[in-house]
Design the sequence.
DNA sequence: AATGAAAGTGTTTATCC
DNA sequence: GGATAAACACTTTCATT
């Protein structure tokens, strides 16, 4: 049994601290980050730039509250296209702005998608086009025991 | 039929431009944002601060690449706790760092969760504790036609 | 609410280790 | 790969509208 990480980039403790801090606040100043890890600002700037270069950090973005934007509800929909409709269904899903993620998976259901809507009544309209071309199974989200979050650092070493 | 947005905060065009720009790059300078919307830096700073205050912007964070971190695979697991095991199962899921989201939903399956793993072999270990207390149904993600993204602005006006 | 100008911070570049 | 210091850029405060 190999003890090496299967893939993925080797991050040292400093990189991990920087990423952890930037997850909490992506607008942290390089100066503050530098103080946190006990290095100079230029060095930290270079580290962060490198993390972007190698693709670990894909970008700096917002955490938005769907509720505050007027989306009171989310649903998870399993979607099984009718024979011959797979490609069309996939394209259709991709045209829905309220789709917050859609994965093509192994097994009975072909797609699993998450949608946000202002109220329960909006769901039907959203899925309209889909329901002619696929069997769907909709589950309304009641609570989120684990809110959407990022993968842990240190893959395989947890 | 009421034409008002059901809930959610009223955002003007400037707010929407600022949010859109910050989604693309949360580290944009207030000066650049100001130029973008044709206002002064202090005004834009105040706008962004206000968007945080009212809870539309929950924070500034990273977009990390799970693959680059060594997670070659993700799976979506539907979890139906055995009688009397609901609370314990929920707690158990919350202790798994590789769980990137978990929702409690209506319908047959009680929880739907997303996990990331370095390789297919790691899944079994992750779900070990769960499988004694719940029926699980695992779907391996092959591709993501809609990658994880944020809700659209302008709820109900799309 | 928004602005311009000044004062205060933070970033970047260049040079060196 | 990391540090320091000077030059440059950005942010914040404040007085004003």
Sequence:
């Amino acid at each position: 049994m190999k003890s090496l990480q299967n893939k993925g980039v080797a991050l040292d403790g400093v990189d991990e601290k920087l990423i952890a801090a930037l997850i909490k606040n992506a607008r942290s100043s390089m100066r503050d980050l530098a103080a946190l890890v006990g290095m100079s600002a230029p060095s930290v700037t270079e580290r962060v730039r490198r993390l972007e270069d190698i693709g670990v950090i894909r970008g700096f973005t917002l955490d938005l509250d769907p509720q505050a934007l007027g989306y009171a509800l989310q649903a998870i929909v399993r979607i099984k296209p009718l024979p011959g409709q797979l490609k069309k269904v996939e394209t259709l899903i991709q045209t829905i702005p309220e789709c917050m993620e859609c994965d093509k998976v192994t097994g009975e259901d072909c797609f699993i998608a998450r949608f946000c809507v202002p109220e329960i009544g909006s769901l039907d309209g959203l899925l309209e086009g889909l329901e002619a071309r696929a069997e769907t199974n909709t589950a309304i989200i009641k609570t989120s025991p684990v809110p959407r979050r990022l993968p842990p650092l240190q893959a395989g070493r947890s």
